[in-house]
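Hi F.,

I've been meaning to write this up properly since the lab meeting, where we talked about keeping a consistent format for the predictions we share between groups. The idea is simple: the sequence comes first, exactly as it goes in, then the C-alpha cells exactly as they come out, then a line or two of notes. No screenshots and no reformatting. I'm using this chain as the first example so we have something concrete to point to.
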Amino acid sequence: MFNQRLDELTALLKSCHYTTDKGPVDADTALQMQSFLINQVAEQKGSVYVIGNGGSSAIASHIVIDLLNAVGVRAHGFTDASTLTCFANDYGYEEVYCSPLEVCLSPQDVVIAISSSGQSENILRAARLAVQKNVALITFSGFASLNPLRSLGTLNIWLDSHDYGLVETGHFFLLHTLIDFMVRQRKNKLAASVV
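Output, unedited:
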C-alpha cells in the first residue's frame, strides 16, 4: 500500500499543471514566479494571505508560519477560531475570507488560495476579490480540470486527481518546496553579500 501511494503521489506531482493567463508554464518557471511575487511583497512591505478549508486550512496555517519565520515575509491566514466564527456568524461561511480580506488587501499583497476541489465558495469569493482588487493570486486546486478556482489566478497550480489525500499532500509538498527554494535564495544572497 505504501509504495503504491508513494508512486501515485510521485506521478501526480510530475504531471502537475501550471498555468497563467498567458497559458501553461513549466514547474521551474512556476516556482520562480511564486518566489518573485512573494519577494515583491517583502520589498513593497505588503503581506501574503494564505487561505483554505479543513486540511487546506492546516496547510495554509503551516505555510504562514514558514513565510514569517523562514522567509521573513509578512503573512496571515485568518485561521484563528474567533476570527472564523465571527465572520461566519455575521456574514455567512461563504464570506469568512472575503470579508476580512476586503479590509486588509492592498495592491502590493499576494493571496494564496488552496482548495482541493477548486469549488469552495468561500475560497472562490476571496479569490475573485483579489482579482477585482488587482492583487496577485496563486491558486492550488485539484479534482476537475475545469474547476472555477483554476481559472482565476495570476498563477494556477492544478493536480489531476480526485483523491483528497493525494491532492492535499501534493499541495503541501509544492508549497513547502517554494519555502525551501526561497530559504536557499536568501542564504545565497547573504553569502554573496559577505564575499
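Notes:
The CA atoms of residues 118 and 149 lie 5 Å apart.
The domain at 29-194 is CATH 3.40.50.10490 (Rossmann fold).

If this format works for you, I'll send the rest the same way.

G.
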